[in-house]
Design goal:
There is one protein chain. With 279 residues, the protein is of the alpha/beta class. It folds into 2 domains: 189 residues, Formyl transferase, N-terminal domain (Rossmann fold, 3-Layer(aba) Sandwich), CATH 3.40.50; 74 residues, Methionyl-tRNA Fmet Formyltransferase, Chain A, domain 2 (Roll). 26% of the residues lie in helices and 25% in strands. It is built from 7 helices and 12 strands. The strands form 2 sheets. Strands 3-4-2-1-5-6-7-8 form an 8-stranded mixed sheet, sandwiched between helices. Strands 9-10-12-11 form a 4-stranded antiparallel sheet. The longest helix has 24 residues.
């Protein structure tokens, strides 16, 4: 007799992620029973807790605070928890609820860029590739054993929207292998501490552009800030231009013609394509 599928609970604050994971879980023969959000209900799906979600076809439960995650999970009785873009540290008590554990998606090649700003640090560090990782969850952020990883090349032309879309496709393609390892009771591969780097939000040390720096360095700084949605502790990158402090949102190293404003950097020109007022 065929074994029934696992009951899977999704922890996420992003409707598109919930929909994607719910669809994939069903395709793999399991049952997505609910999504748990850490935000107000209108920020996830516009529906009340425990009402059908238009996007995913599953219930949405809103945890008003972190301490409520564990009792919510107990009430849902999941076999497995999948986490993707969930802002709170999940407690040991909550992680102990699902029989097959909890598995998190992280957009880097762990243990590289462990933390809330992995894409920003991938760009800032000049990495040649982006990574995706599925790992078992522990009480520490992004520290658990690895179940699956994959990479995709990084180029100067990448936008954050394009990269997130590419990484999402890679992550979904890895899920069958993740479920296979979980079903076999595989504990995963320990992260190699030799490769560990942290990816905190950018701070004041990276918030101001120095036009005397090389053009490539300034361009990378602007791009890195563009890859930090939702992780900004300070505004940036800021620069002085025409006697005003503004935020630079887009630059290019190639002359775009009339569309760009040429600025001289330490070793040559850079063209500013986008700015925002400060304040």
């Amino acid at each position: 007799m065929e074994q029934p599928g696992w009951r899977v609970v999704i922890l996420s604050t992003i409707p598109g992620v919930v929909e994607t994971l719910a669809t994939t879980v069903r395709r793999l023969g399991h049952v997505p029973v609910a999504a748990v959000s850490a935000r107000r209900r209108d920020e996830l799906s516009g529906v009340a807790p425990a009402a059908p979600s238009v996007e995913s076809g599953i219930d949405v439960v809103v945890a008003p605070r972190n301490a409520e995650v564990e009792p919510i999970l107990r009430s849902l009785a999941p076999d497995l928890v999948l986490t993707w873009a969930f802002p709170w540290r999940v407690s040991d008590l909550a992680l102990a609820v699902p029989h097959h554990g909890a598995v998190n998606y992280h957009p880097s090649l762990l243990p590289r860029h462990r933390g809330p700003n992995p894409l920003g640090w991938t760009v800032r560090s000049g990495d040649s590739q982006y990574g995706v990782t599925w790992h078992r969850m522990e009480s520490g952020f992004d520290t658990g054993p690895i179940l699956a990883q994959r990479t995709t090349p990084a180029t100067d032309e990448d936008t954050v929207t394009d990269v997130i879309a590419r990484l999402t496709v890679l992550a979904v393609r890895l899920l069958p292998a993740v479920f296979t390892r979980l079903a076999a009771g595989d504990v995963g591969d320990p992260q190699d501490p030799a490769g560990l780097t942290d990816a905190p939000p950018f701070g004041e040390d990276y918030a101001t552009i120095d036009w005397s720096s090389p053009a490539r360095s300034v361009h990378t700084q602007v791009r890195a800030w563009g890859f930090t949605p939702g992780t900004r502790s300070v505004p940036g990158p800021l620069a002085e231009l025409d006697g005003q402090t503004i935020r630079i949102t887009e630059t290019t190293l190639r002359d775009p013609g009339p569309a760009g404003r040429r600025v001289e950097c330490g070793d040559g020109p850079l063209w500013v394509l986008g700015i925002e007022p400060v304040g």
